[in-house]
């Protein structure tokens, strides 16, 4: 760290210079507050160690003037017996800490190490905030709920690194959207993003699609073909529905993750690839491992950082902004103004449990936007299953009539808590992590909703 020591005692200045220099710090000293203030404002420092009582300019006035002039270094006050009150007052005005005199060398070193760690964490937080700011600006992301905010926070934090990420959650929750956001926030954003659905390609063709083939490798292989891993080199590859990957290909994928090399079908040589792997699945891979359908070693390779996307019913706060976002997208595609939603239709949309998650909501709104007359979506424009929900399932939450929005949200949250506990096998710490909340918050909500 680059440090400034401001003290009128020559012996103490010399001792601190020696102690701090031996610790590897770059140290400048000043013999009074006025000289120290000039030095502090002439160039940037990481921290300033300043005596409380000094001639010309005392420590408290030094701090006030330094902060008033825009100085941003951490200020640590040094106080002799009888001046602790002034040191405490300085902390109220923005000083980081104070050290009572006389002090031992290890006390000073410890305070500075804490200050250094604080600055490191502050730098990480600023980086994370910048990344989250970029994420919030993405037109594809809606994150009003705490669970989605927690997922985005993890995505923003892991994006700068090449770490493998496993996205889990029910089908239709937006795992591919989150994978694209991870790619967008990463240093690989200028490279390709390649998505492959492992369940949508026949097993016989999947190896060739992933790793490529050479001419003559099989009937119909009339030329060399690069696989998706090669095509994603320098960027990101999303292996969607990874739980459906056949056993033999699981072993080959493991080798790619371990060695960074692929072998085209029918080829004897290997090729280097540099693709960041993101996997996604709606299956419980831990259960698949226990039942022998998924390789344990591959699971641990993929599960370096896991991000769970809860069902839409578990994050009702996201439904209204999603409705606005999706209607805007459909209107742009149709070349028409964004339709309004009449109150009865909006009630039906908010009351529906959305078992198909965001994908079902998107399809319902596309249908409604096409059928709407006069620029207004009515309940009759919604799919029958959605329109019925406005007067059936959740409406039973209140004996005398329909459920309020709050009751609907509470019912959805209680259901999400039950599902998280079930997925975690009753482990409340794991359930809290999956929901993106603290264990304390989970206990509070379980008690609030009477969930066992």
Keywords:
452 residues; alpha/beta; Rossmann fold; Helicase, Ruva Protein, domain 3; 4 domains; five-stranded parallel β-sheet; 19 helices; 16 strands; 13% strand
Report on the structure:
The chain is α/β, with parallel strands linked by helices. The chain folds into four domains: 2-122, Response regulator (Rossmann fold, 3-Layer(aba) Sandwich); 138-309, P-loop containing nucleotide triphosphate hydrolases (Rossmann fold, 3-Layer(aba) Sandwich); 313-403, Helicase, Ruva Protein, domain 3 (Orthogonal Bundle); 408-449, Arc Repressor Mutant, subunit A (Orthogonal Bundle), CATH 1.10.10. It is 49% helix and 13% strand. It contains 19 helices and 16 strands. The chain has helices spanning 10-22, 33-42, 59-68, 84-92, 105-136, 146-158, 175-185, 203-211, 228-231, 247-259, 285-290, 296-302, 319-334, 343-351, 357-371, 384-389, 405-423, 428-435, 439-449, and strands at residues 2-6, 26-30, 47-51, 74-79, 97-100, 165-168, 193-197, 212-213, 225-226, 236-240, 261-262, 271-272, 276-281, 305-308, 340-341, 376-377. The strands form five sheets. It has a five-stranded parallel β-sheet with strand order 2-1-3-4-5, sandwiched between helices. It has a five-stranded parallel β-sheet with strand order 7-10-13-6-14. Helix 5 (105-136) packs across helix 6 (146-158), helix 6 (146-158) packs parallel to helix 7 (175-185) and helix 13 crosses helix 15 (357-371). The model is unreliable at 391-403 (pLDDT under 50).
